[in-house]
Amino acid sequence: MLDVEAQEPPKGKWSTPPFDPRFPNQNQTRNCYQNFLDYHRCLKIRTRRGKSTQPCEYYYRVYHSLCPTSWVSRQRGRRARRGEGSAEAEPASRSLPFCFPGGELE
């Protein structure tokens, strides 16, 4: 299980995300996308069960650290236009792929 306390940096200190053996290559695009999905799935599940969403903050920090700011803001805008409420509080839809600059889909 995810040990959230062990992975939290000290207050006010943001470090580089830890190594993820699923993504050993230099290109971290898939890692960015997977953490984006994990964050929104975590929010969806924990909100439905009425539990604290604090463990989801780990995925939030990782995807905000790995993903370029333009991708994060683009997804936030898409979610708002689709009427999914708060851009950071609603889960991602599986029907729409994550689009990268230049229209490429991953």
Automatic annotation (TrEMBL):
Its main location: mitochondrion. Residues 86-95 have a biased composition (Low complexity). Residues 1-25, 77-106 are annotated as: Disordered. Transmembrane segments: none annotated. It holds the Pfam family COX6B. It is found in: Mitochondrion intermembrane space. Keywords: Disulfide bond, Mitochondrion. One of its GO terms (cellular component) is respiratory chain complex IV. It comes from the Eukaryota. PANTHER family: CYTOCHROME C OXIDASE SUBUNIT 6B. Connects the two COX monomers into the physiological dimeric form. This is Cytochrome c oxidase subunit 6B1. It comes from Macaca mulatta (Rhesus macaque).
